[in-house]
Amino acid sequence: MKLLALDTATEVCTVALSLDGEVLERSEPGGQHAESILPMVDALLAEAGLVLTQLDALAFGRGPGSFTGLRIGAGVAQGLAFGADLPVVPVSSLAALAQGQDAAQVLAAFDARMQQVYWGAYMRNAQGMMQLQGNEGVFAPQAIPMPNGEGWVGAGPGWDAYHSALRQRLGRSLAVWQQHCLPHARHVAVLGVAGYLSGAAVAAEAALPVYVRDDVAVKQGPRP
What we know:
Layout: E1 2-7, E2 13-19, E3 22-28, H1 33-48, E4 57-63, H2 67-84, E5 88-92, H3 93-99, E6 105-113, E7 116-124, E8 130-139, E9 152-155, H4 157-170, E10 174-178, H5 185-197
Parallel strand pairs: 1-4, 4-5, 6-9, 9-10
Antiparallel strand pairs: 1-2, 2-3, 6-7, 7-8
Helix pairs in contact: 1-2, 3-5
């Protein structure tokens, strides 16, 4: 199977090409997603000697994450899919982060600003794919939902920002947290292939970002 994967949920833009299990990947830090993503796609396709219409599907990190980054990723995925008449597999960026960790159960967190984190608990299934336990959500670090059991591994920018509060909240449920972890398109590709094979692909127009929350600024109360 040939699948192109994108992730733009964080400050690093990544693109990967999965070719029957072999994965090629490019990444570009710095937050210049709009400028870098299409040249990276072109470079990967050229490296593989393919054109877009030879692929079976696209996958993209649908969020949560940076609102601007998610809009760019979804827009590029839609445009490429429309142009090549390809289905699209939306993949949680938190799930992609969890997929990239060498752990059986992961508490994935992005910094949602406003003293909050985007949060999801994932467990690896028998096929090696991370599966969400409960729901993704946005929470204050002191109010994250408690996972079942112990031995959880924390990962993601939310941990880098709020590790003290998260460790205090989780107590013995947490085994360790990993620093400086981000989602990568190669893990979006792994989950995208699994999603495609399980029937999770959608038409291009349905490839939409998932923000988890829709408010982008703290709402202020009435002035005195």
